[in-house]
Amino acid sequence: MPANKKLLMLPGDGIGPEVMDEVKRIIGWMDKRRHVSFDVADDLVGGCAYDKHGTSLTDNTLEKAMGVDAVLFGAVGGPKWDKAERQHRPEAGLLKLRKEMDLFANLRPATVFPALADASSLKKELVSGLDMLIVRELTGGVYFGQPRGIETLKDGSKRAVDTQVYTSGEIDRVCRAALEFARKRQKRVTSVEKANVMETGVLWREVATAVGKDFPDVQLSHMYADNCAMQLVRNPKQFDVIVTDNLFGDVLSDCAAMLTGSLGMLPSASLGAPDASDRRRALYEPVHGTAPDIAGQKLANPLAMVLSFAMCLRYSFDMADDADLVETAVRNVLDAGFRTADIMQPGKKKVSTVEMGKAVTAELDRLSA
Ligand code: NAD
Q1: Is residue 194 flagged as an active site residue?
Q2: What residue's CA is closest to ligand 1, atom 36?
Q3: Contact 289, 90 (CB under 8 A)
Q4: Which residues have CB under 8 Å from 282's CB, separation 6+?
Q5: Does position 54 have pLDDT exceeding 80, yes or no?
Q6: Where does residue 220 rank: exposed (0-12), middle (13-18), buried (19+ CB within 10 A)?
Q7: Domain assignment present for 330
Q8: How far, in Å, CA of 257 to CA of 255, rounded?
Q9: Considering only CA atoms, which of 167, 165, 168, 175 is closest in space to residue 143?
Q10: How many distinct structural domains can be found in the chain?
Q11: With a 6 A CB cut-off, is 291 part of the ligand 1 pocket?
Q12: Annotation says 250 is catalytic
């Protein structure tokens, strides 16, 4: 079967290559059993790229990333590179990729697998079956707005400034993306800002409302960010899709993440604007970092990376059935009691990174027999 689905794998540092290997196992399975072929290239990013090339992202790697349908990213960084020059630090490579690929919509699902509902910081009945998606604006807002800086005043005290700034175009494109994704879910979007006290909030609500008119089949509501934080821990299952700015999204997505229990279970996607053929630049990565404390010990949970690949199937390749299959296999493997160390519970079967990956492909075999 001809391979027309181009993927670039950037495993990175620490546990990145270990968890990426388990995605390779699933890709091998799909090739053999589903006759779906991917054109896969591999490259260095982060600390390992710095060691070899003196920079965490070479122009050549960036060019490859711009030419593929999707980038699968592991994680970058670690104590070894903490003293590297700022522009060459491992994180700089990831930031450059996001910027050059203009990945403005960050998708963070918060899904609670029934078998792990006990691991949540909330009561089981509040989170069991939770399935929500936070869409965070990623390239604008207060993290990038000018002016910014710290100045020393005449009396010797200091003054710090950050600027929250959004254009209607930036708000339009991220709200539009969220409403589109909601069409493939329960068709409900909550737009979150602070229109009561912030000018950017007023514009955000105005633009979100206007975009909502183009999606009459999707129910759009508005909520203040402080209320949203409360609702997330009071009754998280009320949400389907939340769309919000960079700062609120940063905080609210971490809050939602904790509802699900472990860092090792959380996937993410960062998407750009659709081109003429409706193709979006896209990067998929687990939320966790390189976990230097467990790297090389076969302890890493590969499921966040595996679920990031499932998002790639859904959003970059429109392969919803295959994405569902991978997600169901993960759910079943957890139901069957397989656990890596980070999600271990009494009476369950403790497995290594590789054993977890093999359990998922064995379950894929069973599901498609
Ligand atoms: P981390 O996510 O790497 O680890 C936090 C804790 O969670 C550790 O105890 C770790 O063992 C555990 N953990 C994380 N992922 C796991 C998994 N898949 N399975 C089992 N346990 C897991 O965060 P940190 O310790 O703050 O950062 C370590 C390094 O990773 C730093 O250099 C940091 O800059 C980098 N980092 C990179 C990214 C990225 O590449 N996107 C994100 C966060 C942190």
Answers
A1: yes
A2: 289
A3: no
A4: 69, 70, 71, 103, 269, 270, 271, 272, 312, 315, 316
A5: yes
A6: buried
A7: yes
A8: 5
A9: 165
A10: 1
A11: yes
A12: yes
Residue nearest to atom 23 of ligand 1 (CA): 289
- C-alpha–C-alpha distance, residues 201 and 197, integer Å: 7
The reported pLDDT for the residue numbered 114 is: 87
Mean pLDDT of 241-252: 97
Of these residues, 194, 245, 284, 315, which one is catalytic? 194
pLDDT at 119: 83
Instruction: Give the nearest ligand 1 atom to 79 CA.
Output: 32
**CA-nearest residue, atom 25 of ligand 1:** 291
Q: What is the pLDDT of residue 121?
A: 85
Nearest alpha carbon to residue 23 among 328, 366, 313, 317 = 313
pLDDT score at 331: 95
**Which ligand 1 atom sits closest to the C-alpha of 81?**
32
Query: Does the pLDDT value for residue 192 go beyond 90?
Result: yes
* Residue of 82, 254, 335, 365 marked catalytic: 254
* CATH code: domain of residue 336: 3.40.718.10
At residue 276, the pLDDT reads 82
Residues pairing with 188 in the sheet? 219
User: Token match 């064995």: residue?
Assistant: 362
Locate 161 and state its tokens: 């400034």
Residues in the chain: 369
CB 300 less than 6 A from any atom of ligand 1? yes
pLDDT at 86: 81
Q: Which residue, by CA, sits nearest to atom 6 of ligand 1? A: 291
Domain boundaries, position 346: 1-106+265-369
| Distance from Cα 61 to the centre of ligand 1, integer Å | 23
Cβ of 304 less than 6 Å from ligand 1: yes
> According to the model, what pLDDT value does residue 3 have?
60
User: Is 254 designated active site?
Assistant: yes
Whether 158 is in a domain gets the answer no
Residue 290 resides in a domain: yes
Atom of ligand 1 nearest to the CA of 303: 18
In this prediction, residues 26-49 reach a mean pLDDT of 94
pLDDT tens per residue across span 59-72 = 999 999 999 999 99
| 280-286/158-163 β-pairing | unpaired
pLDDT at residue 1 is higher than 70: no
Is 75 domain-assigned?
yes
